[in-house]
């Protein structure tokens, strides 16, 4: 009788090496499949954890230490606050200390603290359902008069009865994890005496930034926008510039303490800088921009919106030195910027893709036409609302030359009429336009919109608010047919938020 040979079965874990299992993991496309991969056994969980490159977390120092041990190869860490992602007490220096020690290979760090903004209903009243969602687990900085604290106008389940009603202003942080506002409550989130902010990054100081600079020398991107703590100063960010010489992206929107000194430090230490966001940094001047581009000559993206001290000198310096690299330039409400800036851009920056000049009221048709002729192949997004000197001449050039234009804002350009839209009337070409804002353009009528629709089949968003000759009823009676996927606004509140359009600008 023949004795059968013994059959040996090799287990998968004994056969496959780590690199082979990682190769299998890399083939999985969905995050759910990757999570299932980690549920097989501890070894596979370790491989799945160490393969993760990005984390979006809400955690304190203790949990961050555990995460650093488990996710040892993370390159991007997102601790940003938003309406939907807020936590108490927010990011602190202790957190940054743990991050600097535990995530030494980090390349991208997001500490953005976005202020909460609330949409209104069509009738202008607050949307209480949205307010209730937004305020859950958020910080409210209440600046109110003590004499009003016991009034019925503020009902939040918080008692102020023990506070003597002296008429002076206070500032108090309250953590409200389960706030509920029924419709009958007389709470007005738009009251100028009440300031709502998302999250609370007031724990970040210069100490935390110094920890980041010392521990994350390979950092390439940092977003510390809207960190309002007075203990976070230019000194801490100067250390970041010196310690993180490989910085390519830096966003500091709303950090009003920043001055030209930081731009000089960036120029001296960060020659690879490509993207810089300084929206609302009101101390920045032309001198700072000139110093910046002396060393940072590869700037592709620059946002100095609402920096009232920026004028033609600074913009011209950026245009001349970064001419071959500059793709996005945002100058919203930089009222000192005029025709000289536009002329310099037209001569130097042939590859400009996004230009925001809304609120720059001194810009006129001639220089803008030269810019359009220069950048007509590359220009994709143009915002020029409240440019009161812009008329049909410039807009006709934009429509006829910029065939790749995807987003345009001509709100409050009161001299614009239906005439430029004749370019679309023949239907000879298909426009790439996806977003168009014509808010408060009193000379544009249904005739112009009807011509627009003949060639703009890709429209996704059309804002027609406050145009007296254009109404929904009028469009229906005229038989105008908008693209099926197009969102059209006629009567909503002008303060209503809409990220769909804002994403382009």
TrEMBL record:
A Pfam family matched in the record: DUF7885
Name of the protein described by the UniProt record: F-box/LRR-repeat protein 15-like leucin rich repeat domain-containing protein
Species assigned in the record: Kingdonia uniflora
GO BP field: SCF-dependent proteasomal ubiquitin-dependent protein catabolic process
Record SUPFAM superfamilies: RNI-like (SSF52047)
InterPro entries, per database record: FBXL15_LRR, Leu-rich_rpt, Leu-rich_rpt_Cys-con_subtyp, LRR_dom_sf
One GO CC term on file: SCF ubiquitin ligase complex
Record domain F-box/LRR-repeat protein 15-like leucin rich repeat: where: 204-444
């Amino acid at each position: 009788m023949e004795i059968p040979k013994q059959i040996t079965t090799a287990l998968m874990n004994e056969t496959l090496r780590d690199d082979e299992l990682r190769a299998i993991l890399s083939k999985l496309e969905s995050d759910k499949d990757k999570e299932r991969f980690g549920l097989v056994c501890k070894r596979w969980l370790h491989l799945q954890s160490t393969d993760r490159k990005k984390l979006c977390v809400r955690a304190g120092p203790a949990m961050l230490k555990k995460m650093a041990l488990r996710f040892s190869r993370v390159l991007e860490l997102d601790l940003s606050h938003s309406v939907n992602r807020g936590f108490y007490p927010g990011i602190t220096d202790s957190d940054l200390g743990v991050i600097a020690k535990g995530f030494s290979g980090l390349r991208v760090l997001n500490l953005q603290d976005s202020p909460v903004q609330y949409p209104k209903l069509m009738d202008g009243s607050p949307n209480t359902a949205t307010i209730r969602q937004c305020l859950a687990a958020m910080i409210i900085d209440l600046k109110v008069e003590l004499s009003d604290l016991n009034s019925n106008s503020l009902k939040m389940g918080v008692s102020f009865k023990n506070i003597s009603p002296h008429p002076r202003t206070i500032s108090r942080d309250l953590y409200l994890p389960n706030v509920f506002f029924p419709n009958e409550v007389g709470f007005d989130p738009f009251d100028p005496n009440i300031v709502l902010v998302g999250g609370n990054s007031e724990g970040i100081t210069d100490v935390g930034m110094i920890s980041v600079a010392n521990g994350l020398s390979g950092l390439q991107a940092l977003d510390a926008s809207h960190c309002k703590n007075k203990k976070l100063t230019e000194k801490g960010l100067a250390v970041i510039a010196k310690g993180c010489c490989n910085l390519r992206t830096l966003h500091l929107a709303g950090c009003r303490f920043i001055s030209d000194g930081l731009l000089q430090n960036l120029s001296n230490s960060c020659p690879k800088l490509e993207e810089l966001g300084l929206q609302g940094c009101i101390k920045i001047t032309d001198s700072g921009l000139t110093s910046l581009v002396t060393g940072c000559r590869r700037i592709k993206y620059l946002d100095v919106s609402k920096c009232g001290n920026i004028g033609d000198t600074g913009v011209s310096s950026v245009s001349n030195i970064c001419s071959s690299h500059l793709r996005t330039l945002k100058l919203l409400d930089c009222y000192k910027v005029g025709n000289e800036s536009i002329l310099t851009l037209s001569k130097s920056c042939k590859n400009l893709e996004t230009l925001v000049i809304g609120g720059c009221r001194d810009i006129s048709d001639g220089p803008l036409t030269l810019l359009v002729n220069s950048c007509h192949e590359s220009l994709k997004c143009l915002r020029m609302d409240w440019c009161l000197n812009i008329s049909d001449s410039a807009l006709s050039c934009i429509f006829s030359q910029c065939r790749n234009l995807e987003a345009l804002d001509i709100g409050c350009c009161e001299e614009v009429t239906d005439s430029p839209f004749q370019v679309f009337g023949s239907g000879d070409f298909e426009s790439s336009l996806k977003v168009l804002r014509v808010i408060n353009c009193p000379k544009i009528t249904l005739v112009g919109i009807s011509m627009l629709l003949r060639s703009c089949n890709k429209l996704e968003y059309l804002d027609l608010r406050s145009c007296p000759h254009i109404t929904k009823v009028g469009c229906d009676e005229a038989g105008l047919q908008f693209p099926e996927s197009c969102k059209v606004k006629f009567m909503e509140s002008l303060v209503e938020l809409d990220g769909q359009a804002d994403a382009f600008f």
